[in-house]
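Q: Hi! First time doing this. I have a protein sequence and I read that you can turn it into a structure. Is that right? Here it is:
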Amino acid sequence: GGGAFSGKDPSKVDRSAAYAARHIAKNLVAAKLAKECLVQVSYAIGVAEPMSIFVNTFGTGEKYSDAELSTMIHKIVPMTPKAIIDRLKLRNPIYLATSSYGHFGRKYQKNTKIQIIVGEEKGKAKFIEKTVDLFTWEQLDLVPLFKEYVKK
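A: Yes, that's right. Below is the predicted 3D structure, encoded as structure tokens:
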């Protein structure tokens, strides 16, 4: 609870669903389904599927209503916490980079090398290097999926 991201692992929907909502909104705009978009997701404790997905395009969705876009998201974008974690790769050790300079508005960074502390040896931190994707919620990978859906 509390709404902040700090100290929350990706299983907490405060964090993971906020990233997913950002990801969806960016992709709706990039797919030219709206010029501006807000996506809100609500969950109930103990229920994996969201209770609602609310879309507000502020009147900028030219062909599809906000309700139609919400229905599309429900149908084609898995929104359980596990699906979000898997899609956005939130189990990777990305949170130091994520917490520096803000969570949103950063560039998607594929195959970024980071160092992870894995222990201590002779009083010094021991590191390993790992390659991860950072800011996965900023990528535009859902655009083809959205465009294909609206063709039907």
